[in-house]
Design the sequence.
């Protein structure tokens, strides 16, 4: 049952579309048949809106009198809703075909042969990015060997309603046609202004295109400063398009789309009023700051009463949306970081130092489609959205991104509400990695339509030129890591074919548990085992990401080790790896966090751990988001560092010396159980000994403490492979203080 704060949050963020001039999301343009899976909804200066489909490189539609109605999971908590809807009076729309054609005859179609998802072939057209200048947004695409920049504007028409498309084209190596509008059951003609009939094609320099839909509404199009040889066209199936000749020199033109309702009207007056052509290229050099005033705050240092303290930077205000942080990284100086949010903002935080006395926040970017991953490479930010990796450029040095470059948008996206893309990491060679979840049905059980890339760990080379599948079978892998030796890890969340949360040590080509998401035929009958399973009640009900501790002593005794975060439990774990048996266990750090932590990263300058997180659902989080530091104080640490299994012996090495109680078998208790791998949501506990549901208790018959007092060897009656074990112990450390912990893991092999 959702709590009061959750409803209040959803109501707050759903009131308007916020203070960004655009929002990238799955956008529905008035009906489900005209949906842009990767849509950029653009606010046309408060007078209307438009939606650009980056996959099909088309304008899905434009409208006046409104912008968008925020719907979907981040904004209103809607499970099963794809995203926002266009809001206003429709002016024009297109169907789900490519927005450009190089066929010569204006034959527009969807050229994607395997499935209707992902970008069209780049040799037809390719979305390259957008520029933001104040409240204006310019779309850039490549087509026919040239670059096309385009600005949409609601025109002040003397009568009716008009939206213009101002284009700046550097060149076209061959003739190309751009789609303008389509109407159901439409018919029309191309003729002179005021004409009531004409042909199917005509000179764009002095002609207009007229199209009447089966609803009686008349749409007219005229072109201002059309290049010589440009043609307006109307087809019998209700399609309007403009054919441009090959262009050796740059051209600037304006396409005006106008309607006076069911009347033919006089478009000549509209064209005269719209004759001034905006310098689109001037808007692509940086522009007025949208968020010029940073906010200042002071960090809160945690108490140094243990080996690790949690310091907090209060989250910023000033956005319509909450600071639901889903990714972050540091600049080289270690004093600044960028944080991206689930709602699409990117924040710049400065003043990161030991005392955190003068911290400032400033909005850096907005409009990202679920910013759940961020990586900074050579001080250049890359943000992972559900639609693409965006490379951000601050062209004028005002601390705000002006160019949102499409670094790679090859990933396939469907309208499913739950198929998030998670995290963004790089390897030593500069390649990028992220994970994509499956299309979970509302309610969490089963799948909607499955497409390429669902359930995959994915790789993009450092030049952004392609997208490759590394491994498959992941359900909802909210967080990954790339280790110092190229190791890949991921978490995964309990659900269909995932009996409990699992932590994977991934090998290329591996399959990690969900047959429908295996991306192979036939579906596998067995999966690659995780490093360990984690019970949802006591350890992790919704996993976050992982990170490897730097190979030095700045963060205490865990150098070179793996850490894991739990978004659901707001918890941090050390991961112990039994390399000989490819199995692992976790132990919790006794720390508390403000929100559902999911992205850990070490500051490259001081070597301390920083974590960000958010509050969505299925988490114990207390706040919308957090940005916190886990700082090593230098005090002694007494926690498990390594474990191994050999025969009936479980050997655990600690970071510090233990008291004599560690050699007493009565200080320990152990239980074990299995899970059922099946097409069901989760699994009950199953006895390792057989006999149905439940768990087994294994007696610790002997405990011995090593001479250096750091390693305990436990002899366990009946020790055998199990999906899950839980070892509880109460011992003392060197100073005589109580050490009460749980070591929870998986035994694939006893190494016999």
Sequence:
């Amino acid at each position: 049952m959702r709590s009061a704060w959750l409803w209040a949050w959803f109501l707050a963020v759903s009131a308007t579309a916020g203070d960004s001039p655009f929002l990238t999301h799955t956008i529905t343009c008035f009906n489900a048949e005209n949906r842009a899976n990767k849509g950029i909804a653009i606010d046309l200066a408060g007078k209307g809106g438009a939606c650009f489909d980056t996959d099909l490189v088309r304008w899905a539609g434009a409208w006046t009198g409104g912008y968008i109605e925020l719907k979907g999971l981040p904004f209103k908590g809607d499970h099963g809703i794809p995203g926002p809807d266009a809001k206003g009076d429709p002016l024009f729309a297109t169907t789900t075909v490519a927005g450009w054609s190089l066929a010569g005859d204006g034959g527009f179609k969807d050229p994607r042969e395997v499935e209707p998802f992902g970008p069209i072939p780049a040799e037809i057209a390719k979305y390259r990015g957008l520029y933001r200048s104040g409240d204006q947004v310019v779309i850039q695409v490549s087509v026919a060997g040239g670059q096309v920049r385009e600005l949409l504007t609601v025109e002040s028409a003397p009568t009716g309603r008009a939206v213009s498309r101002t284009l700046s084209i550097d060149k076209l190596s061959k003739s190309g046609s751009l789609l303008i509008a389509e109407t159901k059951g439409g018919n029309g003609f191309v003729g002179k202004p005021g004409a009531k009939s004409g042909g199917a094609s005509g000179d764009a320099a002095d002609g207009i295109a007229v199209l009447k839909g089966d609803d009686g509404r008349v749409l007219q199009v005229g072109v201002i400063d059309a290049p010589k040889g440009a043609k307006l066209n109307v087809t019998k199936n209700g399609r309007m398009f403009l054919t441009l000749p090959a262009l050796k020199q740059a051209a600037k033109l304006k396409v005006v789309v106008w309607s006076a309702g069911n009347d033919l009207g006089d478009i000549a007056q509209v064209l005269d009023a719209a004759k001034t052509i905006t310098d689109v290229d001037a808007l692509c050099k940086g522009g007025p700051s949208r968020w010029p005033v940073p906010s200042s705050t002071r960090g809160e240092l945690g108490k140094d009463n243990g080996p690790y303290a949690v310091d907090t930077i209060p989250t910023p205000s000033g956005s319509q949306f909450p600071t639901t942080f889903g990714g972050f990284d540091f600049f080289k100086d270690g004093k600044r970081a960028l944080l991206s949010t689930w709602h699409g903002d990117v924040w710049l935080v400065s003043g990161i130092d030991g005392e955190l006395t003068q911290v400032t926040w400033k909005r850096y970017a907005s409009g990202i489609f679920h910013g759940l991953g961020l990586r900074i490479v050579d001080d250049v930010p890359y943000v992972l959205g559900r639609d693409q990796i965006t490379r951000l450029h601050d062209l004028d040095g005002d601390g705000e991104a002006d160019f949102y470059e499409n670094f790679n948008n090859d990933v396939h996206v469907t309208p499913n509400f739950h198929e998030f893309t998670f995290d963004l990491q790089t390897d030593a060679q500069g390649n990028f990695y992220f994970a994509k979840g499956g299309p979970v049905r509302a309610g969490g059980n089963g799948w909607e339509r499955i497409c390429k890339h669902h359930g995959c760990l994915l790789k993009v080379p450092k030049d952004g030129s392609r997208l490759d599948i590394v491994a498959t079978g992941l359900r909802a892998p909210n967080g990954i890591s790339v280790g110092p030796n190229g190791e890949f890890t991921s978490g995964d969340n309990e659900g269909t074919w995932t009996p409990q949360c699992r932590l994977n040590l991934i090998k290329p080509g591996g399959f990690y548990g969900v047959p429908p998401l295996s991306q192979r035929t036939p579906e596998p009958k067995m999966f690659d085992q995780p490093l360990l399973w984690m019970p949802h009640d006591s350890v992790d009900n919704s996993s976050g990401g992982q990170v490897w501790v730097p190979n030095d002593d700045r963060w205490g005794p865990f150098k070179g080790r793996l850490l894991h975060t739990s978004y659901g439990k707001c918890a941090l774990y050390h991961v112990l790896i039994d390399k000989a048996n490819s199995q692992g266990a976790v132990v919790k750090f006794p720390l508390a966090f403000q929100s559902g932590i999911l992205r850990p990263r070490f500051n490259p300058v001081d070597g301390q751990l920083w974590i960000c997180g958010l509050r969505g659902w299925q988490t114990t989080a207390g706040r919308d988001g957090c940005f916190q530091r886990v700082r090593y104080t230098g005090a002694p640490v007494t926690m498990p560092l390594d474990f191994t299994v050999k025969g009936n012996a479980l050997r655990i090495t600690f970071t510090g010396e233990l008291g004599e109680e560690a050699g007493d078998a009565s200080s320990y208790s152990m239980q074990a159980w299995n899970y059922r791998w099946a097409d069901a949501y989760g699994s009950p506990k199953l006895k390792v000994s057989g006999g149905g549901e439940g768990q087994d208790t294994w007696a610790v018959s002997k405990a011995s403490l090593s001479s250096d007092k750091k390693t305990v060897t436990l002899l366990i009656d009946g020790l055998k492979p199990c999906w899950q074990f839980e070892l509880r112990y109460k011992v003392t450390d060197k100073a005589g203080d109580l050490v009460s912990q749980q070591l929870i893991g998986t035994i694939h092999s006893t190494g016999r």
Q: What stands out?
A: The chain has a mean pLDDT of 96. The longest strand covers residues 722-732. Helices lie at 4-13, 73-76, 267-273.
